[in-house]
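Subject: complex prediction, re-run

Hi both,

The earlier run crashed halfway through, so I resubmitted it with identical inputs.
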Amino acid sequence: MSASPAVADSSPGFAFRTLLTKEVLRFWKVSFQTIAAPVLTAVLYLLVFGQVLADHVEVFPGVSYVAFLIPGLVMMSMLQNAFANSSSSLIQSKIMGSLVFVLLPPFSHWQLFGAYVLASIVRGLVVGLGVFVVAVWFGPPAFKAPLWILVFALAGSAMLGALGVIAGIWADKFDQLAAFQNFVVMPATFLSGVFYSVQGLPAFWQAVSHLNPFFYVIDGFRYGFFAQSDVSPWLSLAIVAAALAVTTAIALSLLARGYKLRH
Amino acid sequence: MTAAIQVNSVSKHYGSLVALDRVDLTIEPGEFFGLLGPNGAGKTTLISIIAGLVRASSGQVAIMGHDVVTDFRAARLSVGVVPQELAFDPFFTVRETLTFQSGYFGLRHNGAWIDEVLDNLGLTNKANTNTRALSGGMKRRLLVAQALVHRPPVIVLDEPTAGVDVELRQTLWSFIRRLNRAGHTIVLTTHYLEEAQALCGRIAMLKAGRIVALDTTRALLARVAGLQLTMRPRGTPPASVLAHRIEERDGLLTLRLAHSDEVARVLAECAAAGCTVEDLEVGHADLEDVFLQLMADRPAARMPAEVTA
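This time it finished cleanly. Structure:
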């Protein structure tokens, strides 16, 4: 009950690490739902599609369909969970009213953005790794260009983490967030070549797929495993980097303006 | 001396609704200040602007000399806010919640102070309980603890005793009084006027987004100074008595008298006019009378600047 601490005692770096730790613990404490469940979902896809289509499809020469499918499923799980992490954390704390505990401390919009997106990346990587570890039982892995694997894993999770921040700020209710998830994120992931090579599609749908940033994340990620892809990994990287820059800019601007947060 | 809270011509509009209309207010360090007004008067909006939770449409607010927008880091480190709505993070225990909150303010090694806050609010034996398992009263205590975790020089409590039991009220007020004596500035909104009367040295009354009264609690009470005399007259009291009338209902006449000496004069004048008096009751005016009188005055006139300054 003595004098108040000087402003100088406060470390912004420690404040940031605390928020990041709390955001990671938030999903870690319910990991059965946030990690185990998405791993199981991906494995079910692998079982069903992998077994049914294994003998009928060969997308890349010398690569079995199951082996082809694994990187796509890993990336799909990473994208969906990175999105789910930041968006559900924001919407839950908005609806519970506990967001006030993050809005009252002296966080800058950069710190808020950084903590939410980094926690999303951590969740994306943990889930992706989980899916991969289980999936290698179904087909031997290849790591022809591992640096690309890492680059696209990080960029893809970051992009969806930032998109989750935008959706979490924008949505006022759970059903609005669910709509965003079901009508934007899910179609974009499914129509991005997780289960097939877009080169097998009719020309029109190929063109549509090439407008989808998710396609480039998955195509570039897959290049890391097989050194084969529909488009050059450099093109994919450029497009994913641009998409990440756009989502980051929007999310930062919403946080800086306090849109729907400090109304 | 730098003001604890300086509010300069702050307005807030939500579309066509004016929640705050050019509010000026200076709260000095060490004050125990009350912000009163009916629901919708703008109390919570003003507090939210001070806390940085809402942005003012125009005007500036500074806490300990730090502007809440341009110098938000120093401003938010200087103020602790107990929000009106009960909120909690269901993933963590009481101690985890406070450790995180302390970390959010960039403070390391704050365990000793957290223990002291827990102890002072009677939360020590709930320290390792998950917040979901707390009763409403315990959640309210945790909310207060979270606001104090960074030892802010300015503490703002938005209706902290709404719907809480007597024990918590007393625990809370004795702790807050000690903090005030230790030099913390306290700003309080409450619906319990007797609480404000007992605790606050100075009071602002807000009505429809404007400050309609700003004075020491003592001076506000002096406005309705003196006594209230309630009686049941048998007959018609003389005009000299009726001049003091403030209410007449169900045969009961209520008068406001400046001084207790006037009671005898009123009774003598009634007797001289042939009017007997029954059911005599003498009471002191309280803050509720001031409040009701101010809120009944229409319209919500702006106070002259020299009074609000």
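Chain B touches chain A through 41 residues (CB under 8 Å).

- K.
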